[in-house]
Design brief:
400 residues, alpha/beta, Multidrug-efflux Transporter Regulator, Chain: A, Domain 2, Rossmann fold, 2 domains, seven-stranded mixed sheet, 49% helix, binds adenosine-5'-triphosphate, binds magnesium ion
């Protein structure tokens, strides 16, 4: 019989000795993700919330920088240009500075329901609308970090990671140090890293006494509170389990989006999940940590009308969730599947991987679903809900 522990340790010792060679092979320097998105006058105006004519007029009056002209002689704009235009015209698409960010967890304890895919696409959608987004990848699988092309090599030796912040002995107190830039100018990320999985184990071991357990459940929440005024939306991508990390996400969130595939097994596990959330919130209350979500929205994910029984299951889901259910399901799409395989979202390129029709259908569907979520997000900020964001846009547009 082999001695399992010494066998494993021998492999680890070998691996550590070889790691410098491995890093050269596994982490060959390569070009990092760059966004080369450009927008024609119509799309740019749409994203800014003005008419193309209003923007052209403001440009002619010198209120805006001169637009770039493409080889076809047409005006075009980059993401940075959109930010400049919003600033020049005094458009604030997100919250007012005194308001806190909405902390939205895309949560379901079931694996593979689309949490990371939705987190990435929602982040990109919100960024396109001009919102400042922070994505916190709390899943040791690091799917969302991969979709943001996080440089795992740089994190290898870093002591400024989420794992260090959440460690029970907390070698890192400044949450801000875990935040990194992404290719999107208004999106930042706290990436997952090697070691995040271990934290779960360390957290449970040695957690004694009510106060200490409460402190550990609230670590992410306290980290996020350090930066909550600096972002409009903070998106949390949890692991598919209710361990220490899952509890931290539940305690940190102010609202939930729950993706549920319209299939019988997923439906049943969602009932189980909701019972679990209610129980968890009750136990957090028991630890004097009141968590009361501002909103819960269920969304049918990876939905296919033609698949066996999904239409019926969607109706049952709608009956179960009532007004907590989003009107539009996220359709199953080859475009999403293929984009994710290339470690990007469908918002990160204007070139379809499949057909143009599939691409447009996919984007239109995501836009509809995310517009519903953005509406709920804006309702959380009294400044935008009182003035009515759409009305204000109209007035701004007229003034320009
Ligand atoms: N709307 C969709 N259309 C096509 N494929 C999808 C769609 N949504 C998700 N997928 C695919 O389903 C798989 C699982 O998605 P994802 O990783 O987002 O789930 P998850 O809930 O985050 O999983 P985990 O629980 O393991 O973290 C991925 O391969 C993804 O590309
Ligand atoms: Mg995931």
């Amino acid at each position: 019989m082999i001695d399992t522990i010494s066998n494993l340790r021998a492999m680890v010792d070998n691996g550590e000795a070889l790691s410098s060679q491995l890093k050269k092979v596994a982490f060959r320097p390569r070009a990092r993700k760059k966004l080369e998105l450009t927008f024609g006058p119509g799309r740019a105006a749409d994203l800014i919330g003005r008419t193309p004519e209003a923007i052209a007029k403001a440009e002619a009056k010198g209120r805006l920088p001169q637009p770039k002209i493409g080889s076809n002689g047409r005006r075009y704009y980059t993401l940075e240009d959109l930010t400049l235009i919003r600033q020049a015209l005094g458009i604030i698409p997100g919250k007012q500075s005194h308001e806190p960010a909405v902390v939205l967890a895309v949560q379901n304890f079931k694996g593979g329901v689309g949490k990371s895919t939705i987190t990435k696409h929602l982040a990109d959608y919100l960024s396109l609308q001009g919102l400042r987004v922070l994505v916190v990848d709390c899943d040791p699988q690091a799917s969302t970090s991969s979709l943001f092309d996080v440089d795992q090599e740089a994190l290898w030796a870093s002591e400024e990671t989420l794992a260090h912040f959440l460690a029970p002995t907390a070698p890192l107190n400044d949450f801000r140090l875990t935040i990194q830039d992404t290719a999107w100018p208004t999106t930042k990320i706290v990436p997952s890293s090697l070691g995040l999985g271990e934290i779960e184990w360390h957290m449970v071991a040695g957690a004694e006494g009510r106060q200490e357990i409460m402190r550990r459940f609230g670590l992410l929440r306290s980290g996020i509170s350090q930066v909550r005024r600096e972002f409009d939306v903070i998106l949390l991508d949890p692991p598919p389990a209710m361990g220490f990390l899952g509890m931290n996400v539940m305690a940190a969130a102010t609202g939930l989006v729950i993706p549920v595939p319209a299939r019988q097994l997923d439906f049943l596990s969602t009932i189980h999940f909701m019972t679990n959330i209610a129980d968890t919130l009750e136990s957090l209350q028991g630890y004097d940590m009141g968590v009361n979500y501002d909103f819960i929205r269920v969304v049918a994910s990876n939905y296919s009308r033609s698949a066996d029984g999904e239409t019926g299951m969607l109706r049952i889901l709608q009956q179960m969730c009532g007004t907590n259910m989003l009107t539009n399901p996220i359709l199953a799409s080859e475009e999403i599947k293929n984009s994710v395989q290339e470690f990007r979202s469908v918002y990160e390129s204007d070139k379809p991987i499949s057909s143009h029709k599939t691409f447009t259908r996919c984007r239109d569907n995501l836009d509809l679903v995310f517009a519903e979520i953005l509406h709920v997000i804006r309702q959380q900020w009294p400044s935008t809900s009182l003035t009515g964001f759409d009305d204000r846009h109209l007035l701004d547009g007229e003034a320009a």
